[in-house]
Amino acid sequence: MASSRRELAKLAAGAVSRRRLMEETYRFISVPSPTGQEADFAAVFAETLSELGLETSIDEEFAGSPSVIGRLKGEGGGPTLQLDGHSDTVPVPHDPPSIDLERDVVRGRGAADMKGGLAAICEAIRALADAGVRPLGDLLVTAHGLHEAPLGDQRTIRSLLGRGVAGDAAVIAELGHEDLATASRGMSIYTIEVRAMGASMHEVELKDRAAHPINAVRLLLDALEARAEELAAQPAEPFGPETLFVGQVHAGDFYNRVPTEAVVVGTRRYRAPLTKQDVLEELEGLCAEVAAKTGLRVGVELKEVGPAYALAPSEPVIAAVQASYHDVVGGELPLAAARAVGNAADFASYGVPAVYHGVNQQTAHSDDEHVSGADLERAARVLAGSIVHFCGAEREEEKR
Ligand SMILES: [Zn+2]
């Protein structure tokens, strides 16, 4: 009789080797890859995927920050799962990498964020092979640089997704280990500029007091505050409150000169289904009112840091990771909102449902970045089981 999906998932998860995984994490962090200099590590990661039997290529679109793409053909009849991660680390110095099998810890820049997660992806695929469990759907592994701000801007992963290098769903091996983020607020930075037509003048030359750029700022701040209060009155659950925040106001350069311009800068956080366009129209409406009252030009520009998204609860990747987590850890994996702006938002904007599961990232970016062997093992086991639950699988021996 053919094994059930759950039996095969447990079989694959059970084949994860903690020691092998710790050693691979150590090997990965021993090749530095600060943002913008990911080429050496990309070569190591690509070689690892090749050894695992994946058809692997290095995408050189962004010089110095190549992306690695690996594909493992399934037995047929299942959806494609993408396992993704960023290959760069923050460019902050750290003590040399170390591994201590007895104390069950790997230390060094990137151990938690997120070469441990990338090693867990590799170990999950290795465990499937060792257990003789063959996925029905394809596996697609992607690793991309230029992730960490301020140098990183997600152009690498967005380019891959834009070119169709995408699975039917994705698991990103970071930013989640005890809950499953299925939604995130979007965030945009707005810049409102007020401009007078003429040149600066002495205060006594100002004929129309309303047409003073600082008056426009006052009206703008009132309008922005009124909108912020409306947003604060809305229910914040389940994904956190929508907000409108003012962070910078610049106007004037001398005590009795009428300035020609003024700038107000801040953030707007919003929930799906709102998009950057909706937020832009909202702010343009406020600006138009102030322009009408003052006769000044008032324009707004918006830079989206991350779009808002919310996955449908019925997305199969959610059930797959939850089922695997239940197999491996025993408890439920609760749904949550993403705490940070991560790549799931980029996947969502290309129509690919993505969730996060990796190692505990409490020490990410810190002076003592580390990950435990137990944590690595749990991440790899959950990933191995998630592949089986999502893609379907069969046993090699049952096939013969
Ligand atoms: Zn990260």
* Top CATH class of the largest domain: Alpha Beta
Main beta sheet strand tally, sense and closure: 6 strands, mixed
Q: Given the helix and strand composition, which structural class is it? A: alpha+beta
- Strand order within the widest beta sheet: 1-2-7-3-8-18
Bound compounds: zinc ion
Beginning-to-end CA distance, first to last residue: 13 Å
Task: Report Rg.
Answer: 25 Å
Number of helices: 11
**What percentage of the residues does DSSP assign to strands (E)?**
15-25%
Question: What report would you give on this structure?
Answer:
This protein has 400 residues and is α+β, with helices and mostly antiparallel strands. The protein has 2 domains: 5-184 and 309-399, Zn peptidases (Aminopeptidase), CATH 3.40.630.10; 186-306, Alpha-Beta Plaits. Helix content is 36%, strand content 24%. The chain contains 11 helices and 20 strands. It has a 6-stranded mixed sheet, with helices on both faces. A hairpin with a 4-residue loop joins strand 4 (98-100) and strand 5. Helix 4 (111-131) packs across helix 10 (373-391). The longest helix is centred in the first third of the chain and has 21 residues, at 111-131. The protein starts with a helix and ends with a helix. The site of zinc ion has 4 residues, from helix 4.
